[in-house]
Amino acid sequence: MKKVILLLAANLLLSPVFAEDEAVPVNFPKKYTREYIEQIKPIYKSVSKDEIFYVALDMLRNTSGDFSRKAILGNNLTERPVKIEFKNLGEINKEYASFDALGWKNGKRLYIYINPRHKDAPPGALAALLSHEALHQDEHNSIAEETYAWTMEAAVWCEILEEFPESGDDKIHPLVVREDTLKRLFEKGDYTNKYIKKTVLQNKGYEKLPATSPGFEDL
Predict the structure, then answer these.
(1) 214: Cβ–Cβ under 8 A, 6 or more apart, which residues?
(2) 217 band by pLDDT with thresholds 50, 70 and 90
(3) CA–CA separation, 197 and 67 (whole Å)
């Protein structure tokens, strides 16, 4: 009897069966079934081990953020995929502990670190955030670069909400609050960077940044 039980167990390990949508978080858009996620996994597995990022990146298709998606997949200055992970940012520098995300370069590798408090964020909100962080591809930063990145994030969030309106349902999630705030600034400026630029200039975290950086010469 023991041999039979062990043989059955071995067969189960060799032939895993996924219950339909069993392991898919409830805040994933309905499009992203277990079967669909498994189909897109080969495209994104070089970037991260967390499937929420597979979904977030895939949601950038056909948006202004598709440039960022391709940059994360390797079309960037390093010509390597960007590694994405949840990380306690305070371990890098205590001043970063409250940041939502951080773009980082270590040698020839680019990283995007996301604050772990966003592990349960809607993938669409993470998509907008990633569209921002993927624009930081070197050691240089500037007011112009941050203005462009924040504006990209706002534009992508607007587009995400058009296709996946449920992404904005959790109004109290801190990442959704961030994205909705940017969206209001973007709309208030008639879909320009007018008010986003003012917000960047007032951000104490950016007060030591130069006006421009390579690739971002215009404010």
Answers:
(1) 138, 140
(2) confident
(3) 21
